């Protein structure tokens, strides 16, 4: 963490945190990077998206990132590294 970084603390039910951590792990990243991706995407697109290809509790649906969102996220070094690893793994499937 650099001197230019800020910390955001949030409270979640333990089970929700456990599920989110598992989701991050399935995506070869961690909860912090997923939240950073969401924040960067929200700021770049000036909108909030809560969709995926899988249905989860509360009937939310989540969709995959668009290529434009991925390109914007790739500008962040930590996120970029993780996304490159994910893309490499997916390409080999």
Commentary on this structure:
The longest helix has 15 residues, at 31-45. This protein has one domain. The protein has helices at residues 14-26, 31-45, 67-73, 77-91. The mean pLDDT is 76. The chain has 93 residues and is mainly alpha-helical. The radius of gyration is 14 Å and the shape is globular.
Outline the fold blueprint:
Layout: H1 14-26, H2 31-45, H3 67-73, H4 77-91
- Series of H and E elements: HHHH
Give the mean pLDDT. Answer: 76
Number of E strands: 0
- Class inferred from helices and paired strands: mainly alpha
Helical proportion, percent range: 40-55%
- Give the number of helices: 4
Large-scale geometry: globular
Into which percentage range does the β-strand content fall? under 5%
Q: End-to-end span in angstroms?
A: 34 Å
Radius of gyration: 14 Å
pLDDT < 50 runs, ≥5 residues? none
Largest sheet: none
Oligomer: single chain
Count of individual domains: 1
List keywords for this structure.
93 residues; mainly alpha; 4 helices; globular
Task: Tell me briefly what this model is.
By secondary structure, the protein is mostly helical.
